[in-house]
Amino acid sequence: METISVIIPAYNAERFILETIESVRQQTVSNIEIIIIDDGSTDRTVELLNTVKDSRLKIFSYENAGVAVARNRGITHATGDYIAFLDSDDLWSSDKLELQLAALQHHPEAGVAYSWTCFIDEQSKFLYHHEKFLFEGNVYSQLLVKNFFGCGSIPLVRKQAIESVGSFDSSITPVEDWDYWLRLAAKWSFVVVPKTQIFYRKSTNSLSTKIELMKKNCIQVHDNAFKKAAPDLLGLKNQSLANIYEYLTHMSLENIPGQHGAKIASQELQTAVRLNPKLLLNRKVQKLATKLILMQLLSRERTKDFTGFFRLIFSNPAT
């Protein structure tokens, strides 16, 4: 019987790690191994993990090196025919692995299966759905334009596909996953399970110190990918770069407080539109632009009063 290795990097993950582990233990397929890479945690992560009574659970502790290295370390320990990655605060539906495995078995030429994602808060309550894509087969051009996966907890990957592309690149964290999916898409076809099965947790922890690094590394992944791209894909370059700046607009607005965040987000959005003016026809971008204009017009106190109103109207980026 084919087995699945689930790799979970964990760094100071005491708040959610047991809930995450439970979502794996409740999978409707049982022939799995759960590989926890403790990435130098200094909290109660390992202590909590040791309370889990499940022979499928394997814990390996290392000095802190970041999520990309932790995933690579997990791969070296994996013995399964398929590998799935799960972040230590995200959750899966109970049929996630079963349906993705069935999709890959039905499409032996495919190396990667993916499903749809929704966002949850720190209480595991639903926030909104991620965009639902149906790309299958050769998805390289679609991934080149946009990382439609959205997070690292989504795919199930054949071990052969993993072996064919090597390790995650730790030098481009926190966007090493986009680079990795691109490398897989260059060699393997993808298959979709059209069902929401991944629950991505949005944390209130500020990412403001990481946004500049994210911007730098997103552009680096973009530039490296287009250097290798076939000539017929070069026309997608500005569209891809524009989507990066649109993403940075959202990240700046969500994670840099007050008018400073709005100012940075406005600059990023203007860059995105200059690169791809057709973005202005996108309803999501129109809403975002309206929100930014209003935030810049309103005083700080009035902006605070409107926060709930904006969240209600603009929280779902897929609309």
TrEMBL record:
Entries under Gene3D superfamilies matching the protein: Spore Coat Polysaccharide Biosynthesis Protein SpsA, Chain A
Lineage top rank: taxon: Bacteria
The species this protein was found in: Dulcicalothrix desertica PCC 7102
Cross-referenced PANTHER family: GLYCOSYLTRANSFERASE, GLYCOSYLTRANSFERASE 2-LIKE DOMAIN-CONTAINING PROTEIN
Record field: transmembrane: none
Pfam family, one: Glyco_tranf_2_2
Domain Glycosyltransferase 2-like prokaryotic type: 5-208
InterPro entries found in the cross-reference section: Glycosyltransf_2, GlycosylTrfase-like_prok, Nucleotide-diphossugar_trans
Protein name: Glycosyltransferase 2-like prokaryotic type domain-containing protein
